[in-house]
Every structure is written in structure tokens, then in C-alpha cells.
Write a structure and sequence with these properties.
By secondary structure, the chain is an alpha/beta fold. The chain is built from 18 helices and 15 strands. It has 2 domains: 111 residues, Urease, subunit C, domain 1 (Roll), CATH 2.30.40.10; 290 residues, TIM Barrel, CATH 3.20.20. Helix content is 40%, strand content 16%. The strands form 3 sheets. Strands 1, 2, 3, 4, 5, 13, 14 and 15 form an 8-stranded mixed β-sheet that branches. A 4-stranded parallel β-sheet has the order 9-10-11-12, with helices on one face. A 3-stranded parallel β-sheet has the order 6-7-8, covered by helices on one side. Strand 14 and strand 15 form a beta hairpin. The two termini are 13 Å apart.
Length: 487
């Protein structure tokens, strides 16, 4: 299959329209027309993402972007007009969904989408939008990794410094067609007011919550998904034996003075890439204390509360780990960095070069202990039945689109999740969270599928053993996927 590359990606404000259509044009150039005939993946083992059941000798039949039936291979009629894909010895699972990504606004969007598709990612939630992206999304074709959900501008202390500003921004984003509100507000009063305003407008809220707001408060005011476990110490405060002590200290700490000059774009880029070197000493102290005061009884109580409130968790463990290991050669020497831009790689290396001098003495082992507590919390959440979503937070330091989601799979497994739970976090749960027909190999579901040459329920590493991808009903074999990576 000869897949040609498209034109150079357009400026950022046109990314949603132009970059995805560039990828789409290249993809379609080498793909056969399916017409009205069925395509059948024949004699394949189907993985049921709801139950973990493995059913061999099945046929998955689809026409265009929707699965028509899943039936025993013995029932195939073998019509001459059908396109047959031999699934002998293979396993089929739904396409993966990266539920925390910045694919359209970090690096080169065209490359990001190609590499994501080559890694079996057929859908993603874009966690940073803009008025331009929202305006152009109606022109985005459905072929390629599906843009499952899109926010407007992230709510921060810049555009939502007061309650009035936050409410006005939420109303504007609703009018512009945002699917959800992404929030990153440090002021506790404004944060809670923004949650209330978004809930009143029927808009889900995802993002960070500050240490001055408890997980219980965020849940009570309708937060729908918590990203990065807070991040840092935010969620761990609720499971600490020293919670009351630190919450009192946080409440009595005056806000920092405003900066003498507005932060530069370069400074913002560095903080977004990795906030750990820019963390205040008092926050480091809290982070390290959280690492050593984990209470499993409180953790179970928190997990049960969040489950009852239906507050989803998107832990992005690989993001947390790479933040803590900003100068680790394991990441800086990753050969997959060839898929990021020179500008990204240069920024990340600059952060790495000064990383050790920007954090307190003895911080690295303490950060590892905090990460261990976060992984322990994820395991308890999963054991309690709290729904989790897999997201990589591509855009952060050392993360490569597509590959980073498979790194997330590995970290979730290290935390103690079973291969089925990891698979569910990227497939079944994504469909449930978004109320979309994705995440299952069943009639009526989207024809977004991944063919694997090893059993994914035996080892999460097998989720990367990809021999083919069906994206919106169009099949690409391993050679075609390799061509995407080689462009």
C-alpha cells in the first residue's frame, strides 16, 4: 500500500481543519475503495472488553465506519464482492483512545496524527482547544484518529482570575461548541464557582484541582474527570494521615505576590513541558510528606466516594513519571524522539540540563516515593471499581504521540492493573465516559479495530503487537502502518 504524505501543516489556528485533512488525503490516496461491499476479518479471536471473554473462529463484518455483525466464521457466505482479511491466529480489539492528549496543539499535528494511527490509536480527547479549533472542527473529516472531545481555552488565572471572568469564559466556550471545560485554576473560590457555572450550563469539567480544594469538594461541585491524580499532591492530600495539618497550612498561606513582569511565552512553555523544576519549596515539602503518610484506609474511602460521585480518573502515570525524571537518559535517548520537532526536543533537553540544580537536594528519591504512592492509589481505585481512563498527556517533556500511550499501558500494569483493566481504560471505558459507540467489538459499534498477533489479555505488551488497524472502516496492514511512520 503506497501512502503519500500531504502538504506542510498549516498555522496553529488552522490545525483542526488543515492538518487532519492533510493526513486524511494521504491515507485515502493509497486505500482501496470499499464501495458498498462488506469487509470481513475472518477466523479471528474476538476480545470482549466488557467481560474479557475470548471467542475464537469469529468473523467481524463491517461496511464503512460501522460494525454490521460479529458472527462465527461458519456463518460466512463468502460472497465474491466481500473484502476478506485473514485473521487466522490473530486477536481483534477495539481501537485505542488516548483520553488525554494535546495532539493538535503540540509539535506538528500532522506527524502526531500519523504516528498515533500507526500505534493503533483511532480516537483522542484534545485537552487544549481554542476558538479557532472549535470553529473549524465541523470541517474535520471522520477518517483518521477521531477527535472525540474538544475543549476551548484552558481556564487559568489568566482568563479566569475572578468568578465573573470564569463564568463569562464558560458561557463563551459553550456558545462556541466546546464539549467540555478544561480547568487549571489555583484560586479555590474561583475554582469552585467555575465548577458550579459549568454544571449549570451542562458542560463537563476536566482538569486539575488546586491543593486548596479537596477531592471531596471538587466531586461535590460536579467535577467529571480528574487528570494526573490532582496533579502532584492534590489528590494524595485526601489519603494522607497528615491531611488536616497540611490543609490548615495551605488555608493560612497568603497567595504569592504577582510577578514583576508578565511571564514570557518561553517560560510558559517550560512550565507546561515540566512543572517540577518550577515547584515552590513549600509544595515540595507537601509532596514529600504525602509520599510518606499514605493511609490505605483513607484511600479506599476516597475511591468509594469518587465512584459514588462518578468522578473519573485519568492518571497519566507516564506523564507523572517523566516529570519526576526530567533528566533521565531512558527518555532523552528514546529513538522515538525522531517523531517530535527539533524545537520540542531542544526545549526538553534544556530542561533536562538544568533539572538536577532546580530541585531540592534529595528530591529524586522523594519524588520516586511519591510516585509509588500514586501507583498504590491507582491500584486501590481500580480494585474499588472506580472507572479509569488511559491518557498519555502527549505534549509534556519526553512524551511522543502514539508511543506514549503504550508507555501508559505499561505503567498502569506496573501499578497492578490486569491486562483487561488496562485495555478497558483505553477502549470500553472511553465509550462509556463519552457515551459514544466505541470501545467494543460488537454490532453497531464504530469500525475502529486493532489486529494483534499475540493475546492482549496475557501481557499488556501485546497491545503493541499490531499487525493491522481498521480506522472508520478502512483497513491498513503492517506495511501501510510502517509507511505512516516513515513519512
Amino acid at each position: 500500500m503506497n501512502i503519500t504524505s500531504g502538504s506542510v501543516c498549516a498555522p496553529k489556528k488552522q490545525l483542526a481543519k488543515v492538518c487532519r485533512q492533510t493526513v486524511i488525503a494521504g491515507l485515502l490516496a493509497g486505500l482501496p475503495s470499499l464501495g458498498t461491499a462488506d469487509t470481513i476479518i475472518q477466523n479471528v479471536t474476538v476480545i470482549n472488553t466488557a467481560t474479557g471473554q475470548k471467542t475464537p473462529e469469529m468473523s467481524v463484518v463491517f461496511e464503512g465506519p460501522v460494525i454490521k455483525s460479529v458472527r462465527p466464521v461458519a456463518e460466512d457466505k463468502g460472497a465474491q464482492t466481500d473484502t476478506i482479511i485473514d485473521g487466522s491466529g490473530l486477536f481483534v480489539v477495539p481501537g485505542y483512545n488516548d483520553m488525554h492528549s494535546h495532539a493538535l496543539t503540540s509539535g506538528d499535528a500532522e506527524t502526531n496524527l500519523r504516528v498515533m494511527l500507526a500505534n493503533g490509536i483511532t480516537g483522542f480527547r484534545q485537552m487544549s482547544g481554542s476558538p479557532e479549533l472549535l470553529a473549524n472542527r465541523a470541517q474535520v473529516d471522520s477518517v483518521g484518529p477521531d477527535l472525540l472531545a474538544l475543549s476551548g481555552d484552558i481556564l487559568t488565572g489568566g482568563n479566569a482570575r475572578t468568578t465573573e471572568q470564569a463564568v463569562a469564559e464558560i458561557l463563551a466556550q459553550k456558545e462556541a461548541g466546546a464539549d467540555f471545560i478544561k480547568i487549571l485554576i489555583d484560586n479555590p473560590q474561583v475554582f469552585v464557582a467555575a465548577l458550579d457555572a459549568a454544571q449549570a450550563e451542562g458542560l463537563p469539567v476536566a482538569g486539575h484541582f488546586p491543593p486548596g480544594v479537596s477531592a471531596e469538594t471538587a466531586a461535590a461541585h460536579g467535577m467529571d474527570s480528574m487528570e494526573h491524580l490532582g496533579p502532584r499532591e492534590s489528590l494524595l492530600l485526601s489519603v494522607s494521615t497528615r491531611e488536616e495539618e497540611f490543609r490548615t497550612a495551605i488555608a493560612n498561606t497568603p497567595p504569592p505576590p504577582p510577578p514583576a513582569a508578565p511571564p514570557t511565552p518561553e517560560f510558559f512553555a517550560r512550565v507546561i513541558a515540566n512543572p517540577i523544576p518550577f515547584t515552590a519549596p513549600a509544595q515540595f515539602e507537601r509532596m514529600f510528606a504525602m509520599a510518606d503518610s499514605y493511609d490505605p484506609v483513607k484511600a479506599l474511602k476516597l475511591a468509594q466516594m469518587l465512584k459514588q460521585k462518578q468522578v473519573w480518573q485519568v492518571p497519566t502515570l507516564i506523564r507523572l513519571r517523566t516529570m519526576n525524571h526530567g533528566d533521565d537518559p531512558l527518555y532523552s535517548q528514546d529513538p522515538n524522539l525522531s517523531y517530535v520537532t527539533d524545537r520540542q526536543r531542544g526545549l526538553w533537553q534544556d530542561i533536562a540540563d538544568s533539572f538536577a540544580t532546580r530541585i531540592p537536594e534529595g528530591a529524586k528519591p522523594a519524588l520516586d516515593r511519591m510516585y509509588g504512592a500514586q501507583m498504590r492509589l491507582i491500584r486501590q481505585m481500580a480494585d474499588a471499581g472506580l472507572p479509569l481512563l488511559a491518557g498519555s498527556d502527549y505534549g509534556g517533556q519526553w512524551l511522543v504521540a502514539g508511543f506514549s500511550l503504550h508507555q501508559e499501558f505499561a505503567e498502569l500494569a506496573k501499578a497492578g492493573l490486569t491486562p483487561l483493566q488496562v485495555l478497558q481504560a483505553s477502549t470500553l471505558n472511553a465509550g462509556l465516559f463519552l457515551n459514544r459507540e466505541i470501545g467494543q467489538v460488537a454490532a453497531g459499534m464504530s469500525a475502529d479495530l486493532v489486529l494483534l498477533d499475540a493475546d492482549p489479555l496475557l501481557d499488556v505488551a501485546n497491545l503493541a503487537r499490531i499487525v493491522g488497524v481498521v480506522d472508520s472502516g478502512r483497513y491498513q496492514d503492517r506495511a501501510a502502518l510502517n509507511a505512516l511512520l516513515e513519512q
